[in-house]
TrEMBL record:
The lineage of its organism: Bacteria, Bacillati, Actinomycetota, Actinomycetes, Pseudonocardiales. Gene3D superfamilies: Peptide deformylase (3.90.45.10). Pfam families: Pep_deformylase. Fe cation binds at C89, H131, H135. This is Peptide deformylase. Belongs to the polypeptide deformylase family. It catalyses: N-terminal N-formyl-L-methionyl-[peptide] + H2O = N-terminal L-methionyl-[peptide] + formate. Keywords: Hydrolase, Iron, Metal-binding, Protein biosynthesis. InterPro entries: Peptide_deformylase, Peptide_deformylase_sf. NCBIfam families: pept_deformyl, PRK00150.1-3. Its cofactor is Fe(2+).
Amino acid sequence: MAVRELRYLGDPVLSTAADPVIRFDHRLRAVVDDLMDTVLLPGRAGLAAPQIGIGLRVFSYNVGGLHGYVVNPELVDVSTETQDGPEGCLSVPDLWFPTVRAAEATVKGVDTRNKPISVTGTKELARCLQHETDHLNGMLYLDRLEPDVRKEAMRQARNSEWFWRGEAG
């Protein structure tokens, strides 16, 4: 169990769809433990495995006193009612842009023993569930922005110190 280093926009792991978990063993439990520890740092609501360099379909969340994880999550239900507000991402630090999401969302998946679990949320938790599921599909919230806003977001990201340019480091 450890707090893991984050990956940033530009890192190929963030734009690649994560693989489904097929082995439910000690290695998976270690990944989940690291995700659970890493998401507990202040200012964090959710964390997907690709954000710590692991291309597996797993994410953790920490919203409104609810702290958990989902293995092989699938977004199974979203409301037609929407919410529009600022959204940010640990892999795109310090940049917040208005993003439209469903007001309510449900993900279904399994736990580390391959037993079914379901998480439903509204407001921030709904936003988190959708955001983290997007990560597992190789998508960042920036991909959902209106074209002119996305262009500005990408300009700001490319000019940041944290932007991953593929250099050894």
